[in-house]
Amino acid sequence: MNNPTICRCEDVTLRQLEDCLAAGGTEVSLREVKLQTRAGMGICQGRTCLPLLAALVDSTGRGLPQDAGLVRNQPVRPLVLADLARFASNGGGEATRCSG
C-alpha cells in the first residue's frame, strides 16, 4: 500500500495530504489542511481521520502550537415530529413548511 487512504469519507490519500503540507508556508493548521483537501469534511466530520491528520501536521514540525483542531458539524439536524407527520400526510412528498 504505497498511498493509503487517510480520510475514507472524502477519499483523501496520504500523498494528497503530504503534497498539501509540502506546499504550505511556515506554519500549517488542521483547518488549512481540511479546507485544501476536504479531509475531515465527510460524514464522520473528522472523527476517524483527525488523529492521523494531527499526527501528519505534527510530523512536519510546522504545526500551530495552539491548533484548535477541526470544527465538527453534526451530519443531521433535529426533526420535529409534527413535520414528520405533515410529511407523511402529504404522501411522502415535499413538506409544506418545516419548523426550526
UniProtKB/TrEMBL annotation:
InterPro entries: BFD-like_2Fe2S-bd_dom, BFD-like_2Fe2S-bd_dom_sf. This is Proline dehydrogenase subunit delta. Residues 6-58 form the BFD-like [2Fe-2S]-binding domain. It comes from the Bacteria. It comes from Arthrobacter mangrovi.
